[in-house]
From TrEMBL:
Its main location: membrane. It is found in: Cell membrane. One of its GO terms (cellular component) is plasma membrane. Residues 41-163 form the Integral membrane bound transporter domain. It comes from the Bacteria. Pfam families: FUSC_2. The chain crosses the membrane at residues 29-46, 52-72, 84-116, 122-140, 152-169. This is Fusaric acid resistance family protein. InterPro entries: Memb_transporter_dom. It is a multi-pass membrane protein.
Length: 353
């Protein structure tokens, strides 16, 4: 083994998306602390006036936004909001020299518009406009020099936040696909237990499933931005998971009252295998594992019961999810600058375990 490979192994490990996902809280806390320390050192090393605004910006930008895509979105919104708010603040200072009442009227008008647009898609931008206006203009009696220092500090804080987000970057897309992988694996286990009438704490399993589903909802916008795809694809996959949740809930209700499917377990095995393969495919970035060969449900051999219909619907939902993930996979792979996924053989070995 080459010495360079050995020396770079720790660096490659901490950049692995799976490692970043498993330790995302610790890494995020370390990233914010390092960014704050860097901003603090700049303040102590250079005669920067109102440097506290730089530190405030770093904490606000990174505080509860761990993912690179979300930070990039927030930076763009904050840049626009800061620019507009700074210009509005400078105008308020100029108007104060003419008439304090005119300056106050202008500030109230800007805050009114900011609050109106704060409830909507551009909410953060509008909110930043109002905050920056107050930072720059104060109560209208500040100086232009002071206002420019505050604006520069906010801009520098935003830049430091963006650079910090690039340090061991946690992509919302990676977090999203790992949560999806866990849900697909949970789905396979839930269905396998229900179909075989093996006791299972279904309520707890569905609770974990739903918790991940809610977390994925919050990641969709940033994930779509990172892979430059429409959020429609992510919403469709989200609907598919909600369908799985509903099917398992209904299956659990009727499982104790009905017999096991009379097909020798063929359909159950095919669905479980497809779900496990999809879970490994999206986790380890192997598109061929998403290509499933689920057989069409055979409902004409006998009078189908409730379990037959639910299993048939589960089979169709699983097939649709795999197809949608297969279409999304090229965009996901394009975001991986260095492919750190496991080899296909390793993924298949884990699938068989």
């Amino acid at each position: 083994m080459k010495l360079s490979h050995i020396l770079t192994a720790p660096w490659r490990a901490v950049k692995n998306p799976l490692f970043l996902y498993q330790h995302h809280r610790q890494i995020h806390a370390l990233r914010v602390a390092l960014a704050f320390l860097f901003g603090l050192m700049i303040n102590l090393s250079f005669p920067i006036q109102h440097g506290s605004w730089m530190l405030v910006t770093i904490v606000v930008m990174l505080g509860n936004v761990p993912h690179l895509g979300a930070v990039a979105q927030k930076t763009r919104q904050r840049t626009v909001g800061t620019t507009v708010g700074a210009l509005a603040g400078l105008l308020a200072l100029a108007l104060y020299g003419v008439s304090p009442l005119l300056s106050f009227a202008w500030m109230v008008l800007v805050i009114l518009l900011s609050a109106y647009h704060a409830i909507g898609k551009a909410g953060y931008t509008a909110l930043t406009v109002g905050i920056t206006l107050v930072i720059v203009a104060g109560v209208g009696d500040g100086t232009v020099d002071e206002s420019l220092w505050r604006t520069a500090n906010v801009a520098l804080g935003s830049l430091i936040s963006m650079l910090a987000a690039s340090l061991f970057p946690q992509r919302a897309l990676d977090h999203w696909r790992f949560l999806l992988s866990d849900n697909l694996r949970e789905s396979a286990l839930i269905y396998s237990h229900i179909a075989r009438r093996v006791p299972l704490d279904t309520e707890a399993s569905l609770g974990r499933f739903n918790t991940r589903l809610v977390a994925m909802r919050g990641l969709m916008s940033a994930a779509a931005s990172e892979c430059e795809q429409s959020a429609v694809s992510f919403e469709s996959i989200q609907r598919g998971q909600r369908t799985l949740y509903s099917l398992f809930d209904r299956m659990d209700d009727i499982a104790e009252k009905t017999a096991v499917l009379a097909d020798g377990g063929r359909q159950r095995q095919a669905i479980v295998k497809a779900l496990f393969r999809a879970a490994h495919g999206i986790r380890f970035l192997h598109a061929d594992l998403l290509i499933n060969a689920l057989p069409e449900p055979q409902l004409k051999e006998r009078t189908p019961g409730a379990c037959d219909w639910l299993s048939a619907e589960l089979s169709q939902t699983t097939r649709r999810l795999c197809d949608e993930l297969l279409l999304l996979m090229p965009a996901i792979l394009a975001t991986q600058q260095t492919l750190l996924a496991l080899s296909k053989e390793e993924a298949l070995r884990r699938l068989e375990d």
